Structure formats: structure tokens, C-alpha cells
Amino acid sequence: AQKVTQAQTEISVVEKEDVTLDCVYETRDTTYYLFWYKQPPSGELVFLIRRNSFDEQNEISGRYSWNFQKSTSSFNFTITASQVVDSAVYFCALSENSGGGADGLTFGKGTHLIIQP
Amino acid sequence: DAGVTQSPTHLIKTRGQQVTLRCSPKSGHDTVSWYQQALGQGPQFIFQYYEEEERQRGNFPDRFSGHQFPNYSSELNVNALLLGDSALYLCASSLKGFPRETFGSGTRLTVV
Question: What is the pLDDT of residue A102?
Fold first, then answer.
């Protein structure tokens, strides 16, 4: 069965610091997708990124970057020069592919990121 | 272009009652998934509907059931409510073959 572990329950940094959120996953499938979602206090999950298991290229989008390493089953998320608006709960998630399309997501427990001014 | 809409936003029910939550998917999406998020936890997958059939189910009891209509909208029904069913219920939609779910803002269910 698949599993996602986010060992950091809460991280607090001062604005403009860089911060990395860790994600480790387990799956027996060779085809799967990894995601990061942001959940502000309003509750809606906001999509940040999706990677498929065959694409290990790291990705950068503005201040956000992602490091995917199959060898260590990790998909870490770094925010550079953090801002107060980045404060939220961040979830890493995994979806396997059971031949009919992507399966439901398995989420980690989330990391509560607090950016102090 | 409307995203995923859920109703109601908040609901209070008594233990033992039944509840129905509703979801309209994002325009162009044909697949709907439901998740339960307890306070301080990550969302847990309940089930997914495609072409009006339950395609996949998570580890939830039969008290949780659903339906998808021809217009792709969906309902989540929970019977014999327990205090532990209190949670935020999230609906997500996607287009089959394109694994990227769009989430609604959720329905906050409180069971007293």
C-alpha cells in the first residue's frame, strides 16, 4: 500500500529565510504521480505541482523549487526568500495509476509553515 | 469559469442522523473524488466516481456512499453519523487521463 510521510509537523522561520519541506513516499507501483498542495486557513487545497515517476527533473517556479529523487523516494519542496503569505499547511500527496487513470490521492499529514515578519 | 463548488459550507447534525453533501465539478471535468479531513490531519480518500460508477474506494465503511449524476455532479451520503465523522469533507474533480485534481472549499460537518 502507498504511504506518504511528512516528518516535519511545524516549521517556523523568519521572513526572507529559505525553507525546505520534506516528503518521503512508499509505493510498489512503477507508474505514479507526486503532488504538493497548499492549504491556507480558508481550507481549499491549492495545487502547486505534479511530477510523474518517469520525470526526475527538478523544477523551479519563481521562489518555489522541487527536488525529486527516486533513489531515496523523496520529493522535497523549497521556498526561497520566504514571505508571510507563504504561511499555510503544505501537503505532499501520491497517486498511483491503476490502469483506468490516476487513483485517489494519498496525503501526508502536512507541514504547518509559519513565516514570521 | 467556476471551479469546484460544494454545498453546504457548514452543517451540524446529531449522532445517528444521515447527511448528504453535494459537489459540482469544475467545467469540463468528468471525475469526482471525495476526501475526509479530520482536524490537524491530511485528507483521506473516500471514493472516486467516473461515468456514474464508483471507480475506486478508500478504507471507509459502507455508511459512506455516493452517487454521480449524468451532469457529473456528485453527492456524498453518510448514514448513522458518529461523533468521529466530524470533519471537513472535500470534493475534487479532474478529467480522466489527466491526473490533476481541483479541490473545492469543502463542507465542515460537525456531529454532536
Answer: 65
